Amino acid sequence: MIYYKAEFDRIVHLIDGENGAKIEVWFARELQEILGYNRWENFISAVKRAFDSCKSQGVEVDDHFCEVTKMVSLGSGSKREINDIMLTRYTCYLIAQNGDPQKEEIAFAQSYFAIQTRKIELIEERLDLLSRLETRNKLRASEKQLSQNIYERGVDEKGFARIRSKGDTALFGGISTESMKNKLNIKSTRPLADFLPTLTIAAKNLSTEMTNFNVREKDLYGETPITTEHIENNTTVREMLKKRGIKPEELPAAGDIGLVRQPGWLSHSLAVFQAFSLTKLCFLMEVGAETEVSKQLY
Q1: How far apart are CA 116 and CA 114, in angstroms?
Q2: Strands, E, within 74-169: which ranges?
Q3: Do residues 278 and 66 lie in contact, with contact meaning Cβ atoms separated by under 8 Å?
Q4: Strand partners, 73
Q5: CA–CA separation, 293 and 298 (whole Å)
Q6: Closest C-alpha to 207, from 173, 232, 228
Q7: Chain segment 174-191, per-residue pLDDT in tens
Q8: How far apart are CA 72 and CA 84, in angstroms?
Q9: What is d(CA 215, CA 154) in angstroms, rounded to the nearest whole number?
Q10: Which residues sit opposite 22 in a β-bridge?
Q11: Burial of residue 94 (number of CB atoms within 10 Å: 0-12, 13-18, 19+)
Q12: For residue 172, what pLDDT is reported?
């Protein structure tokens, strides 16, 4: 086992990424040998399975596979170009998972690449959560602005709550705020938006911004006309989503946005996540031409 660890450590390459971050990569042809594949044609099949697995999970494949060409020395002393692929740790993990666990080198590779892969997954989850948090903060700001706008137009705090609730009912196809909380198993004391997916939060924000705009533009005054305006805006946004096959009330609840309490998460998580992305690195290396490798993968 110590031997295999030393071998995997030996072939890791650290490449400069964005903001000075180091990208940890392995080259497929070097990995092939350690994993016990005698023929490149057989190994590229394992790489393709990992590629397909990435796509099926909704992972951006360009962040984890980067086609390159390398010069290799021949026995005669001459050199020739060969195709190769730069792989992230996540990709190596998927390749190992598709191998035969009865083979000692494959079994070790599954453990070797799994530990850091889980860290990457956690970082991606964090970034998704932070994206939701940013969208949630925008909604909070637009609702605060609406509350202030309509207060100056004869609507008190209770009136604002009624307007917002009726807007929710329009957005969720006739389902009230409280009913949506029950449906998603959210405590009645918690804001519904704290548990909605990013898309739904963004939809609520768009409706609220439209109401903010039209309240001023149309010079609306009083609870009734402002309620009508907010319902119409939420209905319009709902219809737009329906045309794309999306029904807000059918989307599953997301994690509690209130769990993100440390602003320092963003800069740290983003810096680490960028270190595992090959997309811009590939662009900088001008790897864009179709190669025999890409034909086999796609």
Answers
A1: 6
A2: 79-88
A3: yes
A4: 79
A5: 9
A6: 232
A7: 999 999 999 999 999 999
A8: 11
A9: 12
A10: 16
A11: buried
A12: 97
Alpha carbon distance 58, 134 (integer Å): 22
Closest CA relative to residue 67, chosen from 52, 51, 46: 51
What is d(CA 170, CA 186) in angstroms, rounded to the nearest whole number? 20
Structure pTM? 0.53
Q: Which residue has the tokens 């909380």?
A: 181
Which residue from 79, 83, 57 is spatially nearest to 69, judged by alpha carbons? 83
The 8-class DSSP code of residue 61 comes to: G
Per-residue tokens: 113: 């690449």
The residues, ordered by sequence, that sit 6+ positions from 219 with a Cβ below 8 Å of its Cβ are none
Distance CA 15, CA 23 (A): 5
Residue 163's CB: how many other CB atoms inside 10 A? 24
Positive/negative CA dihedral, 32, 37, 38, 42: negative
> pLDDT tens for residues 194-245?
999 999 999 999 999 999 999 999 999 999 999 999 999 999 999 999 999 9
Please state at what angle helix 104-151 crosses helix 2-10, rounded to 10 degrees.
60
Distance CA 120, CA 174 (A): 40
Distance CA 27, CA 296 (A): 17
The C-alpha atoms of residue 280 and residue 104 are separated, in whole angstroms, by 35
Place of tokens 């389902």: 175
Cα gap 167→204, rounded to integer Å = 8
Entry field: residues in the chain? 298
Please name the helix (run of DSSP H) or strand (run of DSSP E) that holds residue 13, with its range, or none. Answer: strand 13-16
| pLDDT above 90: percentage of residues in the chain | 40
What tokens appear for 97 in the block?
A: 């998972």
